[in-house]
Structure prediction request, 227 residues.
Amino acid sequence: MSQNAVSAKSARIKKLVTLAMLTAVTYVVMLLCKSIPDVAGFLQLEVKDTVICIGGFLYGPVSAAVIAVVVAVIEMLTVSGTGPIGCLMNVLATAVFCCTASYIYKKNHSRHGAVIGLGVATLALTVVMILWNYLITPLYMGVPRAAVVEMLLPVFLPFNLVKGALNMAATLIIYKPVVTALRKANLVPPSHDVHAAPKKLNGGFWLFTIALLATAIVTALVLMGKI
Prediction:
């Protein structure tokens, strides 16, 4: 076997190991988020999409989609009581957010690209899930579609915006440390990013991220009726 073939096989194995690790971590994060109070009695705020975005940023939107499907199916079979409809909505929400962010980041592999990708992903999540909540939620809740329409703007719109903002801020905060650890473990190759943001932008970047996170957390507490 040639050296190139050995290197390619080793890279594939490392990729599978990394994706398997991220899938397991995503499932654990999902379980931990079950302790967070629901919004409107059935909407769960969670940050598992943060972990999936890391996989997507590393390996592309297809890898993010695979993790999203695997975790959603395992969740349905183990701890979720929402059945196939809940699984479908779970996959749609996660895939829209993570695949959109990963695709844009792949095209613009920089901190600026990550911010744009996650911002667009948050908007995409909000728009797509309003449509799917209109189509599917009446079946899940067993209520007339008119009742769901009344919830679209006061409930589903802010919920998905907050969920996207939480995952956006969390991804911006932990992506670098996690990937650095994976590189030190020799699971991820060194970065060859030539578009990295200059250090003078770090202060503004962190200020933006912290402000976004704080806003999302406060809004989430309001939606949960805690403040």
Notes: The helical segments are 3-33, 48-59, 61-78, 83-107, 111-141, 145-184, 202-223. Residues 3-189+198-223 form a domain with the Arp2/3 complex 21 kDa subunit ARPC3 fold (CATH 1.10.1760.20).
